[in-house]
Design a protein that fits this description.
alpha/beta, hydrolase, Sulfatase-like hydrolase/transferase, Sulfatase, transferase activity, 495 residues
């Protein structure tokens, strides 16, 4: 049972029953004061892969147009750049070391208070489409209502990247179904139907579209979009090593193709919001869970988890009701994953619950200041799978600097303005000694604030009794396919 939620629900039930018993006439709540929320979460879409970000190759006309109507957080970061940790942090407003959700394929404990549960308690309808990756019961298992963390309408699956035959579960139907077309278009079509059905409801809605592209496999992108990107014509950043030039171009072809197709699907969603006259009372967010290294710094395509900008930086565009002069404004101060929930709650006139660790940045959203700055804490507590050989780290990202430490000491220090491709490590250089000390103190203060310490992977795996597979260093989600899977979670799971 969820203790905090249980108290809230019991109090609400008691209040409702008391009101009915005494036949007290209350003034109706003006639901129009509560904005709708449409949150578009994509997978592995790094911040540089957009036309509006200056990319010379990729075609993203719909998001380019949306960026001109929104506030653009140019240095948004993923708190731990891989799927499950980001999603857990997004829904709870907490850091991965607080929730214990720091590797893929864990089960988010039912005790955690989450985004949909908060909004639902405030009278919102809640809906979720696409990739979930928070249930930890295997990647194709049916997720019952009690494990959906407050989402009511449900067309989702734990995890799949078969975009042309994407499986999903339809609400309470336990039979596995398949989207009938390329999944970004199918998900948006269903979401558009949902919006049309609920556009005139008295209650507002929280709609989360979790679209799994442009995550690999890249070759499965629809051919007509791949034809837009001949590999030899594509531009590589100067930090892509010779070793990965050919492969990076091959992967970028499909990566950009997925991006352009997904942009087209998102354009249909944005058009539907406008056609239903929802724009004036809907907060729209576009973002991603992490980036993609794509051969930069001699790291093969598909990798994330690292503190480089290619992995950590993500898009974050937000359009709020009443936005006018702020249209197209830039905020260079980083927004971090735990900051998103409290900021949305504040914009929704909902009290931020105790225990949420992110910072409320709603004022920056309403009054964008490109000169504002702050330090965002990013991390990798226990590198796994393809990143297993890399050390754990904690890092901070400001609008100008990246500074990172492992259990063995500092390992990265970059001026991202003068060195946007992070090729000149400033660690130990006398000229930057005082600045390095200042950044180190800031990082240490951030860790103290959440009770975190930079310790070994084994320390944290042992703390939560997580077990990696011996041959594949990750939570063995594939064992559920043969009936041998074991749910791993920061807290015991009551089946």
């Amino acid at each position: 049972m969820k203790i905090r939620k249980e108290k809230f629900v019991l109090a609400w039930v008691f209040f409702t029953l008391l009101s009915c018993k005494e036949e007290v006439k209350k003034e109706p709540i003006n639901e129009s004061e509560k904005p709708n929320i449409v949150y578009i979460l994509t997978d592995q879409w790094r911040s540089s892969a957009f036309g509006y970000a200056g990319n010379p190759d990729v075609k993203t006309p719909n998001l380019d147009a949306f960026e001109k109507t929104a506030v653009n957080f140019t240095n948004a970061v993923s708190v731990l750049p891989v799927c499950t940790p980001h999603r857990a942090s997004l829904l709870t407003g907490k850091f991965p070391t607080t929730t214990g959700m720091f590797v893929n394929d864990l089960y988010l404990p039912s005790e955690e208070l989450t985004m949909a549960e908060i909004y639902k308690a405030e009278g919102y309808n809640t809906a979720y489409w696409g990739k979930w990756h928070l249930d930890g019961h295997g990647r194709s298992a049916y997720i019952p209502k009690e494990r959906r963390q407050g989402f009511e309408y449900w067309k989702a699956l734990e995890c799949s990247h078969d975009y042309n035959k994407m499986p999903y579960y339809d609400n309470d139907d336990t039979e596995l179904k398949y989207w009938g077309e390329y999944s970004p278009f199918a998900i948006v079509e269903d979401a558009n139907q949902y919006l049309a059905k609920h556009a005139k409801d008295a209650a507002p809605f929280l709609a989360v579209l979790s679209i799994a592209t442009p995550h690999f496999p890249h070759h499965t992108a629809p051919q007509k979009y791949k034809d837009m990107y001949p590999p030899d014509s594509l531009t590589l950043n100067p930090n892509v090593t010779k070793k990965f030039e050919k492969r990076s171009r091959e992967e970028l072809q499909g990566y950009y193709a997925h991006a352009t197709a997904t942009d087209e699907a998102i354009g249909l969603l944005l058009k539907q919001i406008d056609s239903l006259n929802l724009s004036d009372n809907t907060i729209i967010v576009f973002s991603a869970d992490h980036g993609e290294m794509m051969g930069a710094h001699d790291v093969r395509p598909f990798q994330k988890q690292l503190a480089w900008d290619e992995s950590v930086r993500v898009p974050f565009l937000i359009k709020c009701p009443g936005i006018n002069k702020q249209k197209g404004s830039l905020v260079n101060a980083p927004i971090n994953t735990p900051d998103i929930l409290p900021s949305l709650l504040s914009l929704s006139n909902i009290k931020i619950p105790e225990g949420i660790e992110g910072e409320d940045l709603s004022e920056l959203m309403k009054n964008p200041d490109p000169n504002a700055d702050r330090a965002a804490l990013v991390m990798n507590v226990a590198p796994f799978a393809g990143s297993y050989k890399n050390p754990p780290y904690r890092a901070i990202r400001t609008k100008q600097y990246t500074y990172s430490k492992t259990p063995d000491g500092p390992n990265m220090f970059f001026d991202n303005i003068s060195d946007p491709y992070q090729q000149n490590n400033l660690l130990g250089k006398p000229k930057f000694k005082k600045l390095q000390q200042k950044l180190d103190s800031t990082l240490n203060a951030k860790l103290t604030q959440i009770g975190d310490e930079i310790k070994s992977r084994d320390y944290y795996l042992n703390k939560y009794n997580y077990k990696f597979d011996v041959k594949k260093p990750a939570i063995p989600y594939w064992e559920f396919d043969n009936g041998k899977g074991v749910v791993q979670s920061p807290k015991p799971v009551l089946e």
